[in-house]
Amino acid sequence: MNNPLVQAFFVGRAVAEVINERLEVAITDALSDLGKFDAEAREQMRQFTEEVLERANRAAEAAGHSTPGSGSSGVDAVDVQATIDELRAEIALLRNELQRYRSSSV
């Protein structure tokens, strides 16, 4: 490699290849970590939901109210989803009221 122009070409090409490989590894690792985080978050949410429902059922039984079976039938899932939807709607209404209150008191 007597010609500096040819040497610069091959050095530049090697730099580009190394940067490309390292960037590929970094992106792959980041996507892998993101997928792992998502899976762990979903599992924690599922466990949280199960624990909340178990405690609610125990509290209702202790209070003398009958609760639906612990199985996950379609009716129970619809009832839980309906309850969640109602709670979200109430939260949205409360947020709107808070915004009105804050804007009127300023």
Task: Give a description of the structure.
This protein is mainly α and 106 residues long. Helices cover 86% and strands 0% of the residues. It contains 2 helices and no strands. The chain has helices at residues 4-62, 74-105. It is elongated, with a radius of gyration of 29 Å.
Mean pLDDT: 85
Kindly report how far apart the N and C termini lie: 75 Å
Low-pLDDT windows of residues? none
Number of helices: 2
Brief rundown of the structure:
This protein is mainly α.
List the keywords.
106 residues; elongated; 2 helices; mainly alpha
SSE topology:
Elements: H1 4-62, H2 74-105
